[in-house]
């Protein structure tokens, strides 16, 4: 015990320390993380909830877009006139006026036989007897860029030149439904934000507890010359080792739930519901949820530990 | 001014209090010179551990100024503290080994934190454990080591990176007299061969006689006395770094 062993070159030369301990060295500084604690499971549940809420929000957005796309660019014009000859004349005039207007892409006078067949389930034989006056109907398609101003312009033009003409924008019928869908989308967004907050809180508590449990070790490392960044990096590694499996598990559970729900809705066979399917871009957004969760966990842990270290000299 | 003349450490009218309690250390003014061997003595509760905590940068003073290795500790940014700490080796009173790390990994900590290449860490730690007679216990964790073995691991960890200053708080408190002497010889070897400044806190007055050229700082009720006059004057050239062994 009398002769000192030779020095390791770096220690003697006083090389600047790395920002974070390397590989196995880092792994050895804190107790190995185990998946027996609640954090991976809490993160898994929260990520699953975010995935479901996000998928719900995206599906509602698609549903709303699909419904709006089909109807917002279409108009129905009714020519209400009990006299069949006059009605036919005015209907032809309306077609001429409409065809001449900008942003009108297609005009079709619905044939009387088609109208009669459409109304027969409600009016029975009265629909074809001529006893019940049926308005003439014209389907109008507008350019995608047409908005409420164009609809108002068309209504004004018809009012001037075709007495008895009434314009119905088909999108108006769906406005309450669209409003409800928009509200649900906001709700989904709110849920995502709340669950993200809950995830951050869970990680904050976990990081704080982990720090309290390892305070002695951290103090020793601190006194042996570990920089704050080194200690944060080691803790971060520990937190990520819990967060990553939790996030992946949660994403798996969430995607499975979304897929099952999708199958259930698809089985309804409703035209409107089928518009709420998820696109590739939506799946990419959903795929980013676990990544965002892990980043959030890492950021929260980093801030928590940096704040706790501020209390030490 | 050179480090030798200016000293490694300079305390100027330093006081320390915890919270709103009265000062536990008052008006400490002294200089520790490179390559010297100091004993810090005093009864229990005299403030030895508090003074050592300020020396190994675990505690900031409540007042006064401290310079260490040319840096003003009061004004320097906290981010530079790790750099200073890496120049110190500390043997804590209760060893403060990391309980889940093996003896080997505990000794390796300062080198790994300093970013030493793992191959060199393996060799240096192996040699160091050999040196303190614990090569056969390299893979044992602290709870399975005896008090004396833990102490030697703590000492090996403190000296593995060849600190400029070694600070030991009651390093012989838990070992038998033979082992105490061996540990003291180890500190002397470090002091003589590498020029490390050594500060050993002890309340064992018999220990002071074992290192003839040592300088004594005595703490009494938070005040420092200087029976050897060493704190006011630079040490003899023979004790400067690189000087020959005096023992």
Brief overview:
Chain A is of the alpha+beta class. Chain A contains 12 helices and 4 strands.
Give the SSE layout:
The complex is a heterodimer of chains A (313) and B (247).
Chain A lengths: L8 H5 L9 H5 L11 H33 L2 E6 L4 H17 L3 E6 L2 H12 L2 H4 L6 E7 L5 H14 L3 E5 H44 L1 H9 L4 H41 L2 H4 L5 H30 L4
Antiparallel strand pairs in A: 1-3, 1-4, 2-3
Helix pairs in contact in A: 3-8, 3-10, 3-12, 4-7, 8-12, 10-12
Chain B lengths: L2 H4 L2 E8 L8 E8 L4 E5 L6 H8 L7 E6 L2 E2 L8 H5 L2 E4 L11 H11 L4 H14 L15 H13 L5 E5 L7 H18 L2 E5 L3 H4 L6 E6 L2 E3 L22
Parallel strand pairs in B: 3-8, 3-9, 6-7, 7-8
Antiparallel strand pairs in B: 1-2, 1-4, 4-5, 9-10
Structure description:
In chain A, 70% of the residues lie in helices and 8% in strands. Chain A is α+β, with helices and mostly antiparallel strands and 313 residues long. A four-stranded antiparallel β-sheet of chain A has the order 2-3-1-4. In chain A, helix 3 (39-71) runs antiparallel to helix 12 (280-309). Chain B has a domain at 99-162. At the A-B interface, helix 1, helix 2 and helix 9 of A face helix 3, helix 4, helix 5 and helix 7 of B.
Structural category of chain B: alpha/beta
Strand order of the largest sheet of chain B: 6-7-8-3-9-10
Average the pLDDT over all residues of chain A and give the rounded result: 78
**β content of chain B, as a range?**
15-25%
Order of helices and strands of chain A: HHHEHEHHEHEHHHHH
* N-to-C CA distance of chain A: 35 Å
């Amino acid at each position: 015990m009398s002769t000192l062993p030779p020095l390791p070159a770096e220690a003697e030369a006083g090389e600047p320390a790395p920002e974070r301990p390397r590989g196995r060295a880092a792994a050895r500084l804190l107790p190995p993380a185990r998946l027996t604690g609640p954090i991976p499971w809490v993160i898994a549940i929260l990520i699953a909830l975010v995935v479901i809420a996000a998928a719900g929000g995206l599906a509602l957005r698609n549903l709303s877009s699909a419904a709006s796309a089909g109807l917002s660019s279409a108009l129905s014009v009714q020519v209400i006139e009990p006299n069949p000859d006059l009605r036919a004349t005015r209907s032809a005039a309306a077609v001429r006026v409409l065809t001449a207007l900008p942003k009108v892409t297609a005009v079709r006078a619905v044939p009387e036989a088609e109208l009669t067949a459409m109304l027969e389930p409600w009016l029975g034989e009265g629909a074809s007897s001529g006893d019940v006056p049926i308005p003439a109907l014209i389907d109008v398609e507008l350019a995608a860029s047409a908005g409420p101003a164009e609809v108002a312009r068309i209504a004004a033009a018809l009012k001037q030149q075709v007495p008895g003409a009434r314009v119905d924008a088909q999108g108006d019928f769906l406005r309450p439904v669209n409003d409800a869908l928009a509200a649900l989308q906001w709700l989904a967004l709110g849920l995502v934000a709340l669950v993200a907050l809950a995830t951050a809180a869970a990680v904050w508590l976990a990081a704080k507890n982990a720090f309290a449990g390892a305070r002695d070790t951290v103090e020793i490392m601190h006194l042996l010359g570990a920089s704050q960044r080194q200690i944060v990096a080691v803790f971060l590694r520990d937190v990520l080792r819990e967060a990553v499996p939790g996030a992946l598990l949660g994403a798996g559970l969430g995607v499975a739930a979304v897929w099952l729900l999708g199958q259930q809705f698809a089985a309804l066979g409703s035209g409107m519901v089928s518009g709420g399917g998820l696109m590739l871009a939506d799946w990419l957004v959903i795929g980013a949820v676990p990544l965002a969760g892990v980043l959030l966990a890492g950021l929260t842990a980093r801030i928590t530990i940096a704040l706790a270290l501020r209390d030490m000299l | 001014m050179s480090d030798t003349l200016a000293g490694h450490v300079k305390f100027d009218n330093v006081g320390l209090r915890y919270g709103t309690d009265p000062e536990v250390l008052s008006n400490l003014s002294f200089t520790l010179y490179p390559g010297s061997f100091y004993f810090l003595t005093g009864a229990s509760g005299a403030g030895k551990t508090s003074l050592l905590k300020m020396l190994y940068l675990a505690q900031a003073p409540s007042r006064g100024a401290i310079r260490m290795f040319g840096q003003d500790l009061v004004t320097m940014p906290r981010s530079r503290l790790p750099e200073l700490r890496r120049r110190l080796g500390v043997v804590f009173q209760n060893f403060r080994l990391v309980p889940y790390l093996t003896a080997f990994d505990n000794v390796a900590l300062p080198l790994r934190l300093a970013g030493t290449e793992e191959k060199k860490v393996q060799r240096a730690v192996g040699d160091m454990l050999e040196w303190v007679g614990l090569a056969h216990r390299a893979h044992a964790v602290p709870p399975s080591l005896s008090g004396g073995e833990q102490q030697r691991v703590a000492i090996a960890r403190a000296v593995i990176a060849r600190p400029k200053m070694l600070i030991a708080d009651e390093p012989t408190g838990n070992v038998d007299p033979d082992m105490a002497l061996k540990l003291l010889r180890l500190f002397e070897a470090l002091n003589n061969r590498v020029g490390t400044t050594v500060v050993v806190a002890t309340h064992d007055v018999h220990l002071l006689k074992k290192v003839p050229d040592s300088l004594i700082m005595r703490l009494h009720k938070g005040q420092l006395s200087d029976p050897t006059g060493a704190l006011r004057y630079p040490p003899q050239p023979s004790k400067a770094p690189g000087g020959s062994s005096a023992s």
